[in-house]
Amino acid sequence: MSAVLLLNGPNLGILGRREPEIYGTDTLSDIEEAVAEEVRVSGWDVISVQHDSEGDLVRAVHEHNDSTVGAIVNPGALMIAGWSLRDALASYSPPWVEVHLSNVWAREQFRHESVIAPLASGVVVGLGAFGYRLAARALMHLSETGTGNPRA
């Protein structure tokens, strides 16, 4: 059975209680279950990894490069200056989608540029936890069509 890497960065482990007016009330566990439900139709499992440390996220990307069909990545604030995560994702072969719960372009100016997004197969922002479901659907589509690696 194949698997999707669900990678969540700093502060996302406290979803549901972290600024619910911005990030919603769904917990990371709720999101993991939603993604698992979406990808189950493709026979895929979910490998969920959340770390507040960039180095641990980098390690997870490297560890799962050959064992996953794709990834859903919410780098959190690492989108702004997570250069080592960016470099790890540059060497991640399968397609992956960057996700943000809030619309980062409707927020503070410092959130308006992602160092990671140019490498992604796609980006979903501002749709709350539902954005993860859309990212899962996008990965299934990319897998079926054999597209999705912008670096190819």
| CATH classification class | Alpha Beta
CATH architecture type: 3-Layer(aba) Sandwich
Count of DSSP H/I helices: 6
**Residue share in β-strands:** 15-25%
* Biggest sheet details: 5 strands, parallel
Distance between the termini: 25 Å
The assigned structural class equals alpha/beta
Instruction: State mean pLDDT (0 to 100 scale).
Output: 90
Shape: globular
- How many strands? 5
Low-pLDDT parts are none
- Residues in helix, %: 25-40%
Find the CATH topology.
Rossmann fold
Please tell me the total number of domains.
1
H/E order of the elements?
A: EHHEHEHHEEH
Q: Nearest-angstrom radius of gyration?
A: 14 Å
**CATH homologous superfamily assignment:** Dehydroquinase, class II
Strand ordering within the main sheet: 2-1-3-4-5
Function: Catalyzes a trans-dehydration via an enolate intermediate.
Enzyme class: lyase
Family: Belongs to the type-II 3-dehydroquinase family.
InterPro entries: DHquinase_II (IPR001874), DHquinase_II_CS (IPR018509), DHquinase_II_sf (IPR036441)
